[in-house]
Design a protein that fits this description.
By secondary structure, this protein is an all-alpha fold. It folds into 2 domains: about 80 residues; about 280 residues, Na+/H+ antiporter like fold, CATH 1.20.1530.20. Helices cover about 75% and strands about 0% of the residues. It is built from 15 helices and 2 strands. A two-stranded antiparallel sheet has the order 1-2. The longest helix is centred in the last third of the chain and has 32 residues. The chain is globular and about 60 Å long. The chain starts with a helix and ends in a 12-residue tail after the last helix.
Length: about 375
C-alpha cells in the first residue's frame, strides 16, 4: 500500500508543479498558490519512500505551509477574532516540555566525562552566531526591527533538530544532546544579555522582561518535563512516541503563524533576507567546525560543534519576538531560518554520513 501511495504522491507533485508553472505564466503567480502548496506537500510525502531523501520530507512540507501562509495569510492570522499568534508561546512551551520528558541526569554525564568539549561547544554557540548575526544585520540595511531579528536568531541556543542531524552525521550524539541542553538552560540569562549588547543598537531591549519571557518558555516547561520523567518514566510510552511528532507540528505551527503575520515585509525583503539567513547558517557550520578543529578536537566532535553552532532554536526566537510584540518584524528571520537550516543540515548530515570519521586518534579532545 505504501509504495503505491508514494508513487501517487510523486505523480501529484510533478503534475502540481507543472500546473503551478503554467498558471504563473498564463494568469500570474498570485493565482498559483494551491498548485504550489500541493506540490510541496506531495513531494514531502514522496520523499518518505527513499532513505536518502527521507530527511528532507519534513522541511519540504514546511515549505508547503510557508507557501500557504504567503498566499492565504488572513485565515492563518486570525480566526473569529482570536489572533493565532497567541498560540506561539504555548506551542514553544509544549515543545520544551517534550524536551524535558526526554532528559535525565544521564544527559549531563558528558559534562563530567569531556568538560572541555562541552565548554568549547557552548562558548562557540554563544559567540560565533551572535557576532555573525550582528555583522549581517549591520550590512543588511534592513529596518531596525527586521535587522534585530537576524541578531535574535544568532543569540538563540541550539535546537532539538541539531541532535537529529548529529545522529545522521555519525557525530557525537551524547555531546550534541549535552550542548543543546546546556545552551537551552543558559538561554534565559545569556540570550537577553547578548541581545542587549548587540541588538540594543537597533531596538530597545527590556532585559528583565526578556529574561522572564524566556524563563517561562524554557525553564518552567522543561522543569515540568523533568519532573514528569522522574515520577512517571515508562508509564506513558505513547507520550514518548508522540512527542517528536507533536514538536514537529508545533514548530510548523509557529513558522506558519509568523510567516502569515509578517507576509508583507517578507514579500518586500524575501530574497535578500533569504540570502543573508542562508549565509548566517552556512557560516555557522563552517566556523563552528574549524574553531573546533583549531582547538584540536577529534573529527566526530568537530562535526558535532559545527551542527550545534549552525542550527538554532528558531521556534524559541519566534516566541521571543512574539513576547516582544514584534512577531511580524523581529520574528521574520527565524521564520526563514527554520526551514533553511533543516534542509542545509540534512544535506550536511547526509554528506558526513557517507564519510565516517577516520584517524580519530590523530586529534585528541
Amino acid at each position: 500500500m505504501k509504495p503505491l501511495l508514494y508513487k501517487i504522491a510523486i505523480s501529484v507533485a510533478i503534475v502540481s508543479f507543472l500546473a503551478g508553472l503554467a498558471i504563473s505564466m498564463w494568469t500570474g503567480i498570485e493565482h498559483a498558490g494551491p498548485a504550489f502548496i500541493l506540490f510541496f506537500i506531495a513531494l514531502g510525502i514522496s520523499f518518505q519512500s527513499s532513505e536518502k531523501l527521507k530527511g528532507f520530507s519534513y522541511s519540504t512540507m514546511i515549505f508547503g505551509v510557508v507557501t500557504m501562509a504567503l498566499y492565504y495569510p488572513a485565515p492563518l492570522t486570525e480566526v473569529g477574532g482570536f489572533k493565532l499568534m497567541s498560540l506561539i508561546t504555548p506551542l514553544i512551551q509544549i515543545i520544551m516540555f517534550g524536551m524535558g520528558t526526554s532528559m535525565s541526569a544521564q544527559d549531563f554525564v558528558s559534562v563530567v566525562k569531556q568538560p572541555r568539549a562541552v565548554v568549547i561547544g557552548v562558548v562557540t554557540q554563544f559567540s560565533i552566531m551572535p557576532l555573525l548575526g550582528f555583522s549581517l544585520a549591520k550590512l543588511s540595511g534592513f529596518p531596525p526591527e527586521i535587522a534585530a531579528g537576524i541578531i535574535l536568531i544568532g543569540c538563540s541556543p541550539s535546537g532539538l533538530a541539531s541532535n537529529v542531524m548529529n545522529y545522521l552525521a555519525k557525530a557525537n550524539l551524547a555531546l550534541s544532546i549535552t550542548i543543546t541542553s546546556i545552551t537551552t538552560l543558559l538561554a534565559p540569562f545569556v540570550t537577553p544579555l547578548l541581545m542587549k549588547l548587540l541588538a540594543g543598537t537597533f531596538i530597545e531591549i527590556d532585559l528583565t522582561k526578556m529574561m522572564w519571557d524566556i524563563f517561562k518558555m524554557i525553564m518552567i516547561p522543561i522543569g515540568a518535563g523533568l519532573l514528569f520523567n522522574k515520577l512517571l518514566h515508562g508509564k506513558f510510552k505513547w507520550l514518548d512516541k508522540a512527542m517528536p511528532y507533536i514538536s514537529m507540528l508545533g514548530i510548523a505551527g509557529v513558522i506558519t503563524f509568523v510567516t502569515a503575520a509578517g507576509r508583507n515585509s517578507l514579500l518586500d525583503l524575501g530574497l535578500i533576507l533569504f540570502v543573508l539567513v542562508l549565509i548566517h547558517n552556512l557560516c555557522g557550520y563552517m566556523l563552528g567546525y574549524w574553531s573546533a578543529r583549531l582547538l584540536r578536537m577529534n573529527e566526530r566532535d568537530c562535526r558535532t560543534v559545527a551542527i550545534e553552532v549552525g542550527m538554532q532554536n528558531a521556534g524559541l526566537a519566534s516566541g521571543i519576538a512574539k513576547e516582544m510584540g514584534k512577531i511580524a518584524t523581529v520574528g521574520l528571520a527565524s521564520a526563514v531560518f527554520a526551514p533553511l537550516m533543516n534542509i542545509s543540515g540534512s544535506i550536511l548530515a547526509s554528506y558526513w554520513h557517507r564519510k565516517p570519521p577516520e584517524n580519530e586518534d590523530e586529534i585528541k579532545s
